[in-house]
Write a structure and sequence with these properties.
The structure is a homodimer of 126-residue chains. Chain A has 4 helices and 3 strands, in the order αβααββα. Chain A has 126 residues and is mostly helical. Chain A has one domain: Orthogonal Bundle (Arc Repressor Mutant, subunit A), CATH 1.10.10. A 3-stranded antiparallel sheet of chain A has the order 1-3-2. In chain A, strand 2 and strand 3 form a beta hairpin. In chain A, helix 1 crosses helix 4. The longest helix of chain A has 33 residues. The radius of gyration of chain A is 19 Å and the shape is globular. Chain A binds a DNA duplex (30 and 30 nucleotides) through helix 2 and helix 3.
Chain lengths: 126, 126
DNA sequence: TGTCATATATGTAATTATCATATAGCATAA
DNA sequence: TTATGCTATATGATAATTACATATATGACA
């Protein structure tokens, strides 16, 4: 027996945290050096959203090959060793560009939300 | 000979229009009935971004199977016939939910941009 | 008849996101 | 001493989205 999946009922998130994870990480790292698991906790605290831990680690390694961050192992007596990440000059440059792109996205969402308010909250005047 | 692709140089758009296309379409359709190509032009005019025409048509058909819009062919003396789309009750309900999700995304981006401003524009006070 | 603008649509590759699993160190409880 | 739980890093596989390319059709106009 096959069940037909109803796409219209699927919950839709229009701005998943994963999409913004790179600038989020770089912003956190420009304040403090940190490691994967620590960033996970900070991201969830600041963003109020669950972050996929697998992708977070993969993203960090990719960001390192991109030269945006560099990492170094740090001993941890209380548990497994930590790979600590530091933002680089290149990372700062990228963050700057990301902020420009995010500002545009912000404008787009604003226009959409304002259009919605105009149409449905205040009637269709103007 | 193989060339290594430098991922760090790839332009990154953090909020592609495609991601927000469904609510954008529904908002436009809640003002006027329209067709694919017309929506394409309106979307580009309002969003200042190129929209992938192939995906737009596919999205519209999917939105129809989801019951958010319905379509009807309209004769067009000046060219090919047009498939005109109208928003449905279900589409309005979805748009409402989308706006909630988009408001959350908006907040997330704001927190990020504000954090950036605080860290880099006004120094690290507070 | 050739090109351009409008108009709808499908094929497929590349990228991104989700879900699952593996491994390891230490603490603490059973 | 084994099991469970939390921290910590990492990979495998699949699902979903996005980007790029191509096909087709109608009418206008040169």
């Amino acid at each position: 027996m096959t069940t037909t999946y109803n796409d219209s009922l699927r919950p839709r998130v229009f701005g998943v945290i994963q999409r913004f994870i790179e600038p989020c990480i770089l912003l956190l790292l420009s304040k403090n050096t940190s490691h994967g698991y620590g960033l996970l906790e900070d991201l969830e605290k600041h963003c109020g959203e669950k972050v996929d831990i697998g992708n977070l680690y993969r993203t960090l390694r990719k960001m390192e090959t991109n030269g945006w961050v560099k990492s170094e192992w740090y001993g941890n007596k209380a548990g497994r060793d930590r790979r600590m990440y530091t933002i680089t000059k290149k990372g700062h440059t990228f963050l700057e560009k990301a902020v420009t792109s995010l500002t545009q996205t912000d404008n787009l969402i604003h226009r959409l939300l304002e259009g919605y308010q105009r149409t449905f909250q205040k009637g269709v005047s103007l």
